[in-house]
Amino acid sequence: MVGMESSGDPDQDRVVASPGDGDAVGDADGSATGAPAEASAAVRAARRGPGVVTTIGILLVCLGLAGLGWIGYQYYGTNAPAERAASVEMQSLREQWRSPGAGGGATATPATAAPPSVGASPAATSTPDDRPAASPLGAAMALIRIPRFGATYEKPILVGTSDAALARGVAWYETTARPGQLGNFALAGHRVTNGEPFARLLELQVGDEVIVETRDYVYTYVVDTPPATLTVTDVDTWVLDPVPGKQDVPPTRALITLTTCQDLFHSPDRSVGFGHLTQTTKK
Q1: Distance in angstroms (rounded) separating the CA atoms of residues 129 and 61
Q2: Beta bridge partners of 259
Q3: Domain 76-282 falls in which CATH fold?
């Protein structure tokens, strides 16, 4: 603070600074404090923005969150749309079957001209009937029910194994036999994502029924080899042969093959189950 020191002589009175005043305006040596310099440095840093390391870290966090979101959508977000699409396919197929002269739905008429070969499944046919071989690629052709999975389990079977077909139900390998036909009627379905039609496929046991309904017939197959006991890779196409594993042997029975992913994430491993036809019922 500023004060007056009196000497008794008004002419000699002078202004002096008290010792404490130096702390208010500067250091004892008269130099300025570092506060303004530090504030200036902070302003410059703010103007420069985040550093390279910070930017990279933010980008990595964003990528991680986007990846988790994509995985979550694939495993959970695709199920509801796929289930709705499957319901639409089943309703449309039933309406088509009820229409007079409907030609949709691959089917095989039981053989009547000649008895089946030795070892053939009951009512299996050796040649297809004279109706269209199948619905167009991607269209529903039949329905599948598996009692082991519950009384309400029912899914459409679509022609071909494209991603679009697999996203709406169970897919039929269109180069294999048709339902009820001699040979190997082979199906594929997702175990996770896209409605998960084969989510419980590994629960199947020997003797479990797999029921396939077409426009005119209901075919009942039983499981011989549970999917939980057989794992192959996605290049092991022998499982699709008319007689699996015996490429040059002509089929004498109507068989069914069920395939799905062995793992709950993307991998080349496939779980495969086999069965045979035991009953054919005319609708």
Answers
A1: 60
A2: 188, 272
A3: Sortase; Chain: A; (2.40.260)
